[in-house]
TrEMBL record:
GO terms for cellular component: plasma membrane. Pfam families: BPD_transp_1. Belongs to the binding-protein-dependent transport system permease family. Its main location: membrane. The chain crosses the membrane at residues 31-57, 94-115, 127-148, 176-199, 232-256, 276-305. This is Transporter. Keywords: Cell membrane, Membrane, Transmembrane, Transmembrane helix, Transport. Residues 90-305 form the ABC transmembrane type-1 domain. It is a multi-pass membrane protein. Residues 1-22 are annotated as: Disordered.
Amino acid sequence: MTTETIIMSTETKAPKTAPPRAGSLRRSNRVLAFFTIPSLLWYLIFTIGPLIAMFLISFTDWTSIIATPEFIGFENFAEMFNDPRVGTAIVNTAIQLVATVPIQVVGGFMLGYFLSLKFRGHRFFRVVLFIPALISVAQLGTIFTVVFGPAGLINSLLTAVGLEEWTRAWLANESTAMLCIILVGIWSGLGFNSILFAARLSAIDGDVYAAAELDGANHWQRMWRIAFPISIDFFGVVLMLQFLWTLFGSAALILVMTAGGPGQATSTLSWLVYRFAFTGAPSIGYSQAIGVLLFILGSIGLLIIRRAFRQRY
């Protein structure tokens, strides 16, 4: 049998797969699109819908849920930019972000690195660090209200070591109230971030660290010259999430611990959105104007974070 005969017989026996027709591809795409309709509707109704409503309400004078809103144009925004309470809240929000987010993210990364080394007892430390994530904001605020109270744990410890002159009502003092909020925020987020980073860094091959150790690299060098560049994309994700949580989610903790006081010492933008909507003489339209400002600041912050990690994230 010649070579040509073998090739011809092989070609006749091997069935050829016909390329999919354009019509079948279109039908398949329509089926897939059909199954995305529920999630798309959910997104439009519960995400895009409230966002549009926030912008529309910000142009109204709406004193309560049962009242009829009245369109007033940009009056809420004009009032907001002349309101010293909003200026104070912007400063407090900036202080909270600068003091909280870097420590939570960088500290979480460093703790996560050491957890990823799987030293003896690392599972116990993982559980301990994750405990704050299991505590609700209401419980967290209540616990630390007691801790920082006049007869709380902090003052009791200071009294026990002979530093009675340092005791004070920490949450009722304008110079220390925001510091207490920041410390609680760091405590509640640091451990959770460390668990996230530990999960990411555990995927790094141990041989990489071993080779660096043979070259004389210590833990600090391995952490920042090996682990950090490898996980920098995940670093950007955690930074973005922590920024959003601190900017938008801190109002609940402030509500439980200080209610924005004393005075305006712990008043942030997210707190003002709640305050003007539900306390005192409600002004839902004005609160949503502040919400628009908060949304714009959050969007700018996200763009900056994405820009900073543009090469890898």
